[in-house]
Specification:
It contains 13 helices and 11 strands. The protein is α/β, with parallel strands linked by helices and 362 residues long. It is globular and about 55 Å long.
Length: 362
């Protein structure tokens, strides 16, 4: 397998953009990534799109060529990947495979979602389709509330520890000009927020956002994919043996670490999938950043930089864009001298899909 490097990154701001559609968002991110890479559109050999629910949110299907054409990339292979909130992490994994195997030399992977043109109730219905609609029959806040309650009961995790995750990520997001919600909050505010699904308040839940991100991959470059793995688990939460676990995250991390030749202790910083604050806490345990059951205390300690972008909680969560945006954020932080070895963890559903990517400066 050949080395694979991220040679260009591009993003839109995340937020609510009434005047922008899925194509204009994607085109902005792709144009920025190509410019950053100093690559012409004619040099791109394949286009990989991560998008969860464009047909439901926008009414448009056949999205890969639809978006590729708007990005000036018509005529090349264009493929859409859908794996819930891990859609663009999965697209990135397949784009990496194409370059690593030598099938293509220069590819673009883009993640995009346009969510805010639908009423809140409809957004909830669409997002619920990432779960088992025949079995779970609950919204995602309700599903992750079950996970939070199980973790609290078994390990003594507290609402204050989950609130600390929100406070930290809002503090980081406040400094990110691309973030959807640039607002400093206190633990007291987070605890007093509107209860969405006990014990999760408004401040424990990620945002409904529009946005796009893109990365250009090629065989040579300073910022390389050292390890990457995608794994899966049951879609239905009720099928899981242990609600306090995200075993797909553990498996994908182990594989990515092994490929990269590193351990969890070597990772200097990470962008984690904090769709809900409890998800970040459990992810830190599954990634081996702390012992199982100690994620809440580890979050409070801020022992290593997690979600310096603001995470999904403050940066925003246009679900199809999130995985590629995490990759772009890790690369951006390495470029800024904030570490030489970073990790991105992208989750689909209640843990049915996981992609872990280790990136390093070489």
């Amino acid at each position: 397998m050949r080395p694979v490097a991220a040679i260009g990154i591009g993003k839109t701001a995340f937020g609510a953009f009434a005047s922008q559609g899925i194509r204009s968002l994607a085109a902005t991110a792709v144009e920025a990534a190509l410019s950053d890479a100093a690559v012409a559109a004619a040099q791109v050999e394949a286009f990989y799109l991560g998008n969860f629910a464009g047909p439901s949110f926008t009414g448009q299907s056949h999205l890969a060529p639809y978006v590729a054409g708007a990005c000036g990339l018509a005529g090349i292979p264009a493929t859409r990947f859908e794996d819930a909130c891990a859609s663009s992490g999965v697209a990135f994994h397949h784009a990496w495979q194409a370059v690593a195997s030598g099938v293509h030399d220069v590819v673009v992977v883009c993640g995009v979602e346009k969510m805010t043109n639908q009423p809140t109730a409809r957004v909830g219905e669409i997002l619920a389709m990432a779960g088992d609609v025949d079995v779970d029959r609950q919204t995602f806040p309700e599903l992750f509330a079950r996970i939070a309650r199980a973790h609290m009961e078994r390990y003594g995790t507290t609402r204050e520890q989950m609130a600390a995750v929100a406070v930290k990520n809002h503090r980081y997001g406040y400094a990110n000009p691309y973030a959807h919600l640039r607002k400093l909050i206190t633990v007291e505010q987070a605890l007093a927020g509107k209860m969405i699904a006990d014990p999760l308040t408004l401040y424990d839940c990620s945002l409904v956002s529009d946005g796009a991100a893109a990365v250009v991959l090629a065989p040579e470059g300073r910022f390389r994919v050292l390890g990457i793995a995608q794994t899966s688990d049951h879609v239905a939460l009720s099928a899981k043996a242990d609600l306090t676990r995200l075993p797909a995250v553990e498996r994908s991390a182990e594989k990515a670490y092994r490929m990269a030749g590193v351990t969890a202790a070597d990772i200097q910083f990470a962008e984690l999938h904090d769709c809900f604050t409890i998800a970040e806490i459990i992810a830190m345990e599954e990634l081996g950043f702390c012992p199982r059951g100690e994620g809440g205390a580890y979050a409070v300690s801020e022992a290593r930089p997690i979600n310096r972008s603001g995470g999904l909680k403050s940066k925003g969560h246009p679900v199809g864009a999130t995985g590629v945006a995490q990759i772009a954020d890790v690369v951006g932080q390495m470029r800024a001298g904030l570490g030489d070895l970073g990790l991105a963890q992208n989750l689909g559903g209640t843990g049915a899909t996981s992609v872990v990517t280790v990136l390093g400066k070489v």
